[in-house]
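Late entry, evening session. Most of the bench is empty. Finally got around to the prediction I had been postponing all week. Sequence below, unchanged from the version circulated by S.P.
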Amino acid sequence: MGIKQWFKSFWTPEVEVVEPSFDETEAEAEKELEEHYADSVADEITAALNDLDDEEETPLEVVEAVDVSPQIDIGDATADDLLAEEELVSHYDVDVADDIDVDSADAHFVSASIEGDISEAVEDE
């Protein structure tokens, strides 16, 4: 250390660097995020309003219609086949159960075996 630096050390104050606390850092980050979000929302709103204010409208793209009806081979069907009196089957009450015994509703699981990745049998509790 030279004489110049030794003299300089008397007049140079030591600066202590104070690190911000977690709460201060979090508040700063929250403030920046709020500003960024407000700016992006404002930009999106401005772009949407500009699109609405445009004088010229963008023409819609014309899409050619495609036949999506199923291809059914009607064979020898005639109009009289539509008028034939056949009794139709109703499927409205197929999954309706009137009387369910709660005690025996899962009885079919008693004889089930365990297959797969389980290495030991599961005990009833």
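Two things to note before I forget:
Residues 22-53 form the longest helix (32 residues).
The chain has three helices and no strands.
Will write this up properly tomorrow.
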